[in-house]
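Appendix B. Extra example for self-study. Work through it before the problem class; the solution is given directly after the inputs so you can check yourself.
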Amino acid sequence: MDSTIPYIPEPTLRRLPWYLACVSRLRAHGVERVSSTTISRELNVDSSQIAKDLSYLNIRGKTRIGYDVVELEQVLVDFLGFARSHNAVIMGAGSLGAALIADSGLRRFGLNIVAGFDVNPALVGTDIGEVPIFHTDELAARRSELGAEIAIIAVPVDIAADVAEKCVAAGFKALWNFTPFRIRTSPEIVVTNTSIYAHLAVMYNRLSAKR
Amino acid sequence: MDSTIPYIPEPTLRRLPWYLACVSRLRAHGVERVSSTTISRELNVDSSQIAKDLSYLNIRGKTRIGYDVVELEQVLVDFLGFARSHNAVIMGAGSLGAALIADSGLRRFGLNIVAGFDVNPALVGTDIGEVPIFHTDELAARRSELGAEIAIIAVPVDIAADVAEKCVAAGFKALWNFTPFRIRTSPEIVVTNTSIYAHLAVMYNRLSAKR
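Solution. C-alpha cells for the complete assembly:
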C-alpha cells in the first residue's frame, strides 16, 4: 500500500490534516456531504486550493453534491498514514520526552512509541507509562528488535548533533527533531523539525508589537 | 522595553532561536567570538541571510572578528522575550495539556503556565505539577487575577472553536493553538498554530515515498 503513495508537496501535506479535522467534525455532527466551498468557509483556505490539494487523493467530488463525508474522512486517514502504526523511539526521556510519551494524541495519529533512550541513571531501567527507558548505548543493538524507523529527538540542544548521528548510525530512517539544532545528515534520512520554542518567539513578538 | 520591539518577519523570528541555540552551544564550549559564516556552517543557513536577520538586533559584528558570543546570546535572549516571564493558561488538561504543563522547557523559554482549565470533573480541582486545574466556566472570572494574556488551546478539535471564542471573550490576547482547527478571530488577537500532527503527516509521506 505504501508503494502507491506519491511524494506530495509539503504545504499540501500540512493542509490535509486540517481538512481531516474539519471533515471529522462534520461527520460527528451528522453531515453527509461536503463541498470544497464549505471546507473553505470553515478553515479560511481558498476553495480552489482545497480542490487542488484533494486531487492528490483517490476520491472525486460530484458536481453540485460534493464529497461523501465518511468516504473523504477515511481516504484522508489512509492517505496521511494515521491509520497505520509507525514504531518510534524517544531520544531523551526528560521533560519534553516524557511529555511526548504521555501524549496519547500521537498514538491516535499512528505514532507508536515503543521505547525511550537516555543516559540519566535515574531514568535508565524505568518505565514511563508502559514505555521502557534504555541506556543510549543500547540504541544500535535494540533498534531492529523494536522495529522502529522513527527517532524523536528530545534531548538538550547541545547533544542534539551527537544523538542524531547515533540514530542514523543505528539505522533509523526518520528523525523528528524537537530541538532548535538544525540537523544535517544524508539525503536518504527524513528530517522533520518541530520548533515549539520558535513558535513562542513569534507569539511574544506579535504580542509586544501590538502593545 | 517591550515598546522598542519592532514587528519582525516571521521567517526571521523562526530562525533567531536557531542562532540562539548555536551561540549557546558555542559559549558552552568556551568560544568567545563568532562570525555569521561560522553560524552558517553550523546551521546550514546562508550567511548573508544570517547577517540580515541579526541586523534587526541591537548588536553589530566587527569586521574580521565577528560577534561577541556572550553578548550575542544575551541580546538574542532579550530580543526573543525568553528572559521575561509570560503568564499563560492551558485550555484542556488532558493528555497533551498535561504534557505541556510537564514540559519544563517552556518555562526556560519564558512561558509560565499558571493554571489549566477543563470540564472533566475528574480533573477540575486537582493540581498537575503545581498548576491548579479550574472549571472552564471560571475562565473569564479567573483570567485577570491570573495575569495571563496567553491561552494554550489543547482541547479536542471538535470544541476548539468554542474554546477559542471563550478565551477571546475572557480577554486573552494570544492563542497558541495545538489543535488542527484553524481559529479565525479578530485581527487584534495573536494566533500561533503548532500543528504537531501535521508534521507527522509530512514525515510519514516522506518515509513512504523513499521506499
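Self-check: The longest strand of chain B covers residues 111-118. If your reasoning did not lead you there, revisit section 3.
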